[in-house]
Target: 3-hydroxyacyl-CoA dehydrogenase
Amino acid sequence: MDLKGKHAIVTGGGTGIGLAVAKALVAEGVEVTITGRRLEVLKEVAEPGMHPMVMDVTDEQQIIDATQAAVDARGPIQICVANAGIAEGRKLHKTSSEFWRKIMATNLDGCFYTVRESLKSMTDTDYGRVIAISSIAGLRGSAGAGAYAASKHGVIGMIRSFAEDFLGKPYTFNSICPGYVDTPIVTRNTDAISQRAGVSEAEARDMMVSLNRHKKLILPEEIAATALWLCNPACESVNGSEIAIGGGQI
Ligand code: NDP
Model:
């Protein structure tokens, strides 16, 4: 697979899954714009070939401006990894409209604007890959995290629809649906999960591990390997799909 010199954007590329994907792409010679809200974090992790850029995905105008600036600097975006997201939980009947909007604005609106803006330059080229990081929670209900689950279901429906809109064109659109991955989101949420379930933090982590039939948290590199595989030109018929990486948790 020759991806050398192509330009990718990875939102939330400074940590966790996004950083692992950025590293995998850079290793293939891709120039990767990594985005997030914290420039210092992006600069600290950036390797040669990674280009930090501040972009808050809840701010439509910032996405429009940042993606245009990235295109001006490095050419058309041919790989778009819409990964930025937040995972916070509330039982749905105790979810305020403010909390609901916060989750949707980041996980669903942010994904939509990122993909829409990336397509502006991608569609001038003869190759494109759009990969959204949804979740196992995008494939089923999620106790205590209904807004999150709804946002991730939305991502899947949107990505399937992008695929339909571009059928016959050389661009593919797929969602990756991870189970529990060992990243800062899981570390941050261990406390919240333990409170919801009324167990200790260690027990909360054990519960997440036990849902995975391999009895482990998934590694970010496992998600990155699948994202890289989707970038392979030979994978052009994998389109409008969801790939669950849940260690058997579905
Ligand atoms: P991280 O917390 O490490 O990554 C989340 C990233 O999103 C951060 O880099 C963060 O950067 C960025 N981000 C959050 N809000 C915004 C915003 N408003 N604007 C721009 N960037 C933002 O956790 P993960 O790597 O695990 O999460 C990546 C994705 O994977 C998320 O969409 C998550 O829902 C999904 N996922 C994770 C699972 C897991 O178990 N870890 C399971 C299933 C799905 P910054 O704070 O600097 O802005």
Summary: The chain has one domain: 7-181+219-245.
